[in-house]
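Researcher: Sequence recovery benchmark, item below. Answer with residues only.
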């Protein structure tokens, strides 16, 4: 079966699969920490990284659907998809770093320089990117249908 998917859709699906595999591997790390811990729990940021990766993998699938059904030009959808995906990956990496270093259980308690700027950029990119894709879907499926 040969299905021609848009570039933005293929990027989203590739990210979904990669992030899901990453989540499964993070689950192994989480299990190892739980098995070795006297309290039988993983570091909070290892747990957060695992759960975030699972959720972001499925969110990436959602991006793929809205990108594929968008009325906007492919380049607009690609930029929107990548804006969201870059911050999904950045968030997971930051959680992994805190889990690896075991330096905090709350990154906002003593924020590192640039954390709040990163969070503002994340908010703008994730919401903005999705609004672009969602509005493209609405335009294609309801406005011009």
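Model:
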């Amino acid at each position: 079966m040969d299905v021609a998917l848009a570039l933005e859709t293929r990027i989203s699906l590739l990210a979904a699969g990669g992030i899901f595999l990453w989540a499964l591997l993070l689950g192994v790390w989480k299990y190892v920490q739980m098995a070795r811990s006297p309290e039988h729990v993983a570091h909070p940021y290892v747990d957060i990284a695992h759960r975030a990766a699972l959720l972001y993998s499925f969110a990436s699938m959602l991006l793929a659907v809205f990108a594929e059904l968008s009325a906007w030009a492919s380049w607009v959808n690609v930029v929107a998809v990548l804006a969201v995906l870059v911050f999904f990956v950045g968030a997971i990496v930051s959680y992994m770093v805190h889990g690896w270093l075991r330096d905090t259980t709350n990154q906002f308690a003593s924020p590192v320089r640039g954390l709040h700027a990163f969070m503002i950029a994340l908010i703008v990119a994730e919401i903005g990117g999705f609004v672009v894709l969602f509005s493209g879907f609405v335009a294609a499926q309801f406005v011009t249908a």
